[in-house]
């Protein structure tokens, strides 16, 4: 599957739209609602927004606020949902912002994302293509920003699910985020589903993001094909919202197999659905 660095102006605009969507979603929360649990282990709705603020602040070259000496100090490395160094940094930002009231957090979110819009608008093509350390390895800065769009889009779903509100899960932001959701599926096919050489699997997503993702296994490696090259060994059909939540580790397949249909090798299809998660 070919993957080019996203176009700078278009992706910058999508990021701005994504931040606006998050701000609108939480704009009317009262203080009690801010502290309601999100679908993410250990995080409230407040914490989800604080995490986005922390990452975008870090990209602006900022460091977390100092610890409030009047609060008990938490060793974030001991928290069960903190599994790597990126999660440690995320958790430090969240922990340091927790004393803020929800309204102040939202104001800070607006300030930080406005600064990020300005920073992205000021970038030139050389900076956009520059190799940059990211959660998916060293990639062009523009690819990293697509990861940021994916992350923020997923967190919009987390917030909506936590609030109990429906949002539009289709459109350009979702289509772009789905590129990050599908790129690594070759690993899930081999490592998780244990698909044998020669296997072909088609994921048929029925909407609101509508697409077919064709997967192949050869030489012990899985890959995402630009188009099907053989009849599929298995076809898995589900809506894109469920796929995103399974892939993002927000839901477990065991609770949702009734919402998935299978054709061909059902056992292979079920193994893949049960091993879609690659992030949480």
UniProtKB/TrEMBL annotation:
Origin species: Nocardia halotolerans
Domain MDMPI C-terminal: 185-270
InterPro entries, A to Z: DinB/YfiT-like, Maleyloyr_isom, MDMPI_C-term_domain, MDMPI_metal-binding, SCP2_sterol-bd_dom_sf
Keyword Isomerase: yes
Mycothiol-dependent maleylpyruvate isomerase metal-binding domain location: 15-160
Single GO term (MF): isomerase activity
Name the record gives this protein: Maleylpyruvate isomerase family mycothiol-dependent enzyme
Keyword Isomerase: yes
Any single Pfam family the record assigns to this protein: MDMPI_N
Keyword terms of this UniProt record: Isomerase
């Amino acid at each position: 599957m070919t993957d080019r660095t996203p176009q700078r102006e278009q992706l910058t605009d999508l990021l701005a739209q994504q931040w606006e969507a998050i701000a609108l979603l939480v704009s009317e929360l009262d203080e009690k609602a801010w502290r309601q649990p999100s679908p993410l282990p250990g995080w409230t709705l407040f914490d989800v927004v604080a995490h986005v603020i922390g990452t975008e602040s870090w990209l602006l070259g900022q460091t977390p606020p100092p610890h409030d000496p009047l609060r008990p100090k938490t060793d974030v490395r001991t928290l069960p949902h903190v599994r790597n160094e990126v999660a440690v940094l995320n958790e430090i930002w969240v922990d340091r912002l927790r004393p803020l009231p929800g309204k102040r957090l939202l104001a800070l979110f607006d300030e930080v994302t406005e600064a990020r819009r300005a920073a992205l608008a000021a970038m030139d093509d050389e900076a956009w293509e520059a190799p940059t350390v990211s959660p998916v390895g060293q990639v062009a800065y523009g690819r990293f920003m697509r990861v940021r769009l994916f992350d923020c889009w997923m967190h919009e779903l987390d917030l909506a699910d936590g609030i109990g509100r429906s949002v539009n899960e289709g459109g350009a932001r979702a289509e772009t985020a789905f590129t990050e959701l599908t790129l690594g599926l070759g690993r899930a096919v081999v490592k998780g589903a244990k698909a044998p050489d020669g296997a072909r699997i088609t994921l048929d997503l029925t909407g609101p993001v509508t697409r077919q993702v064709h997967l192949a296994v050869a030489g012990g490696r899985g890959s995402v094909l630009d188009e099907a090259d053989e009849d599929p060994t298995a076809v898995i059909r589900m809506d894109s919202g469920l796929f995103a939540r399974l892939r993002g580790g927000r839901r477990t397949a065991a609770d949702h197999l009734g919402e998935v249909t299978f054709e061909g090798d059902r056992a292979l299809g079920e193994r893949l659905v049960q091993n879609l998660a690659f992030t949480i």
